[in-house]
Write a structure and sequence with these properties.
By secondary structure, the chain is α/β, with parallel strands linked by helices. The chain has 14 helices and 18 strands. Bound molecules: NADP nicotinamide-adenine-dinucleotide phosphate and magnesium ion. Magnesium ion binds next to helix 9.
Length: 404
Amino acid sequence: MSDKIKMHLPIVEMDGDEMTRIIWAKVKELLLHPFLELKTEYYDLGLPERERTGDRITMDAAEAIKQYGVGVKCATITPNEERVTEYNLSEMYKSPNGSIRAILDGTVFRAPITAPGITPYIPTWKRPITIARHAYGDIYKNTESPAVQGTKAELLLTAADGSETRIPIHIFEKSGGIVQGIHNTDSSITSFARACFSYALDTKQDLWFNAKDTISKIYDRRFRDIFEEIFRREYKDSFAETGITYAYTLIDDAIARVIRSEGGFVWACKNYDGDVMSDMVATAFGSLAMMTSVLVSPQGYFEYEAAHGTVQRHYYKYQKGEQTSTNSVATIFAWSGALRKRAQTDALPRLENFAGALESAVLRTIADGVMTGDLYEISTLLNKQKVDTETFLLEVAQRLERFL
Ligand code: NAP
Ligand code: MG
């Protein structure tokens, strides 16, 4: 193609590990470079480069997202003990996603990609449900301890002036047990609330938030109050103009409503609820490999990625020269999401059109019955055929030309 689509500002591109790194290069080669004059600021977050730079590269990438506003990330290995040995690491580096999220103070939104022939397990669900998980505090930053019989457990708060407040928790008279301290901060909850309201506006979907403030009258109640306050002060009018709503309900009531719903809303959850419910929603929509993820900061920076990991098991097969059938859909949608956002911030209609065409080409390929093994197993299409990793991308590329 002679007249390639031009970009203005770059996207921050973060490469990754294993099978998704292989897919990453193929997506660029087959679906992006032939059509776009792709402009990126490239950061290699693959484990060898993180080791070489002592993880500096991850921090640099996060700073670059602050500078350019839009990023796209490949899945990366979060090292554990086996990985330290496998990659001969000098340190057990933290999860890059966690590091980037901390620097951007962001909230993660996960939405399933719905495709023809991949039917949700819940028959009423017609549109995707996006989960927003508050990724700070609660049990994920807890302090806990066993308590032997006879222990008196108290909450002790020491104020800046040294004054102490003691609140009894439990006296372990008849039996020993366990005790746990958790916290959250007004600033983190406020950022979370703003990210949720902004994302709902951006995607023109209703926002639901839920907690258990009938039981947790101070802790969960604070979440509810902050959401309501931010909504009233900053978002009420724009929500009304856009024709979307914000509603708070109790978490158990929310579950019942979600199951009966048609989908098509943003479901904001506290940390643990989001952890659990995102896996439920992903599975109920069909496949983890069809989950997209976007990190949104309160300043309006966006980082797109697939929700799944590096698909290690497939990579080991690939390394042995065996055929793989790894699903690249969520990775492609990470790129289309970032390109669309870049097109909107830079007012580039041809680029925005390309992002839509790329997604349409992927969905058409699946509708035509061409899919990877994970989808083949759950697809209800009669003419379905299982293809390998690269063939799927080649089939998308063929169709993409027709959508442009
Ligand atoms: P995973 O990479 O998500 O894969 C788990 C299993 O799910 C795969 O073995 C495969 O099942 C299936 N699967 C996931 N994505 C698929 C795809 N695109 N196409 C087809 N099947 C897919 O999780 P993991 O194996 O637990 O983790 C591997 C590495 O990824 C770890 O080092 C972890 O730290 C990292 N990770 C990174 C991120 C991230 O960067 N955002 C997120 C999660 C995990 P079958 O084997 O049955 O085919
Ligand atoms: Mg989980």
